[in-house]
Amino acid sequence: MKTTLLLCSFLVATVLLMDNPKKECCSHFLKGELTEIEGYIAFRDSLNPAVSKVEVAWHLDHSLRTINEIHKAVKKSNPENYKGRINLGRTLLLLINKIPRGRAESPKIVTPPEVIHTDSLYGQLALARKNLTAYDSLPKKAFFEHPYLGIMDRKTSKKFLEIHTEHHLKIIRDILKK
Predict the structure, then answer these.
(1) What is the pLDDT of residue 16?
(2) pLDDT value of residue 178
(3) 159-163 long-range contacts, CB within 8 A, separation 24+
(4) Which stretches within 17-117 are classed as H helix?
(5) Which residue has the higher pLDDT, 20 or 148?
(6) Nearest CA among 51, 56, 30 for reference residue 128
(7) CA–CA gap between residue 16 and residue 23 (Å, rounded)
(8) For residue 172, with 0-12 CB atoms within 10 Å meaning exposed, 13-18 middle and 19 or more buried, which class applies?
(9) What global pTM score does this model have?
(10) Looking at the predicted structure, is the pLDDT value of residue 110 above 60?
(11) pLDDT given at position 71
(12) Rounded-to-integer distance, Cα 168 and Cα 48, Å
């Protein structure tokens, strides 16, 4: 029964990740999300403890660090070492297309510093735009290893970045709601 469930989850996730010409075009990849992030920098100090215990700046910084660190890892990887493995958590995340709130702790490498400078946010944003423009030129089997969700190739890591970025944008939108 577990094997059948795993196989079904894997097949559904595979279908969800099938080529989508609009999303595969690197010039469109997270373009709207990065524009939205840029617009929220003006509200960097906003806080709503009922939604999140950290300010908007933390979510912006974390999202940008995640984009840039994943790109760096995928770029640095050796595609010959890629070994795809089934990971139930990753399969579920890709299946529901959403990260539940308050479930995971941010890995240290993408945890923002205590003091977040506005200039740093703009610098990370510029780097993210540059990195995402070049993302599709990386080998298909280039990968990164997420500490909880396992190894993700270029295409799966793009999907993860979409889900992760939207997760934090939703939190920011909720923080800013009156």
Answers:
(1) 47
(2) 65
(3) 159/16, 159/17, 159/94, 160/70, 160/90, 160/93, 160/94, 161/30, 161/66, 161/67, 161/70, 162/23, 162/30, 162/33, 163/93, 163/94, 163/97, 163/98, 163/99
(4) 21-24, 31-40, 56-76, 88-96
(5) 148
(6) 30
(7) 12
(8) buried
(9) 0.84
(10) yes
(11) 97
(12) 14
Angle between helices 31-40 and 118-133 (to 10 degrees): 170
Q: How far is CA 166 from CA 6, 34, 82, 156, in A?
A: 26, 10, 27, 15
- The answer to whether the Cα torsion of 58, 61, 64, 68 is positive or negative is negative
CA-to-CA separations, 49 to 39, 46, 54, 135, 156, in angstroms, rounded: 21, 10, 7, 35, 33
Q: Whole-angstrom Cα distance, residue 7 to residue 1?
A: 10
DSSP-assigned beta bridge partners for residue 146: 150
Query: pLDDT band for position 105 (50/70/90)?
Result: confident
